[in-house]
Write a structure and sequence with these properties.
Blueprint lengths: L3 E2 L8 E14 L8 H18 L4 E15 L4 E16 L3
Parallel strand pairs: 1-3
Antiparallel strand pairs: 2-4, 3-4
Length: 95
């Protein structure tokens, strides 16, 4: 079974295992914008991996925040997209 990632709750009986945190970033070259989808997929994959390590079935009540940083240099601007996330790892009782 694959890990479920949701921003809400699930209508199943479960036990709470732990709270987890993940962060991912995507950097882009000069004159290009960073792709938020790549950073979002990266942070979701980290949440799933941490959930599996804890032998959980899902990560519920996930919250996502982002930050965009731009640096100037002689060549041009460079953009970095960072996404932070946390959620609660659960294990279903009716496995």
């Amino acid at each position: 079974m694959s890990v479920i990632i949701t921003t809400g709750d699930l209508k199943r009986n479960y036990e709470v295992i732990d709270t987890i945190f993940a962060m991912d970033s995507h950097k882009e070259g000069y004159y290009k914008s960073a792709d938020p989808n790549l950073a979002f997929e990266g942070v979701k994959n980290q949440l799933k991996k941490k959930c599996e390590q804890l032998r959980g079935d899902a990560v519920i009540s996930c919250q996502f925040e982002y930050r965009v940083a731009v640096s100037d240099s002689l060549i041009g601007k460079k953009q970095v997209m960072e996404i932070f996330s946390y959620g609660t790892v659960i294990r279903f009782l009716d496995r």
